[in-house]
Amino acid sequence: MTLAFFCLGALSLLGELDEQVTTENKKDWIDWIYAQQVLPTGQIPDPNEAYCGFRGSSWSGRKFEPTATTCSFQHYDSSHIANTYTALLNLLLLGDDLSRVNRQAIIKTIRKLQQEDGSVAPTYGSLEIDVRFIFCACAVSFILNDWSGIDIERTTDHIKRLQSYEYAIAQCPNQEAHGGSTFCGVAALALMNKLKEGLVDKDKLIEWCLQRQVSGFQGRPNKSPDVCYGFWIGASLDILESFTLVNCQELKAFLLECQHKIGGFGKDPDSFPGKISR
User: 215-228 b/e with 16+ CB inside 10 Å = b?
Assistant: First the structure.
């Protein structure tokens, strides 16, 4: 689901989505996405209440039912908040009206995913809890125009606790600030209309972001620049109305160095697209 979003989103940004994906293929994509929707069982109480939304793929062999309105108990085939987020974006990119999305079920699940401290889990019972999933939950709530699944005040307070001595945002409390988690926190606050209340020091956060530009952007101090942070930190600065302070010529030159003849971008000039390096 997430890989589909990167492909469809990139084609849309390039103005090529309608050229590369036919009307028939769009319909097939939409049906495939809806077939990954985890729905209520229809029982009272409903055992799927904490598991609704979209899963990442059809790996489990579940029956292909793009028009289903209920499904069996999905404890071991749960939705994932990141896939719910990208599924909704995929549907919108493909021109769908979201009419088959069970909005109420998704919002109920988000309510179950939010923790007492304001953080959000990706799936019910997961211990992998960090700011990425706060952003996804906020984005889903924004897309569905329903914030009843999120405690906005608790979420805002949690993001404040994620801000380090550098005033940027870490994945979890008391951790190192990072470009990706900074975007997730800043974007979540913006979606909740809580930037003013949620940032400890906006000016120092902007300074931290600007200091990450070497040619491209690095994700943390003393790291090499990486293509992805052109988005994570660049988007953060744009939300903070400070992208005009970026040296765009240097950034563009770095990005073009990372584009290869075979197509696509590597993380840096020495990496091929798709190469995994740590």
Answer: bbbbbeeeeebbbe
As a whole number of angstroms, the distance between CA 4 and CA 270 comes to 26
CA-CA distance, 56 to 78, in Å (whole number)? 9
State the Cα angle at 219 between 254 and 167, rounded to 5°.
130
| Phi, psi of 114, rounded to the nearest 5 degrees | -75, 135
**31, 32, 54, 64, 85 from 94: Cα distances, Å:** 11, 12, 16, 20, 15
Are 163 and 217 in contact, with CB atoms under 8 Å apart?
Answer: no
Residues in the chain: 278
Residue with tokens 């009272």: 44
Instruction: Retrieve residue 90's tokens.
Output: 């995929």
Backbone angles phi, psi at 169, to 5 degrees: -115, 130
pTM, to two decimals: 0.95
Q: Distance between CA 183 and CA 237 in Å, rounded?
A: 9
From residue 84, alpha-carbon distances to 11, 36, 110, 122 in Å are 20, 10, 10, 10
pLDDT tens figures, 223-246:
999 999 999 999 999 999 999 999
Please tell me the distance from the alpha carbon of residue 274 to that of residue 268, in angstroms, as a whole number.
11
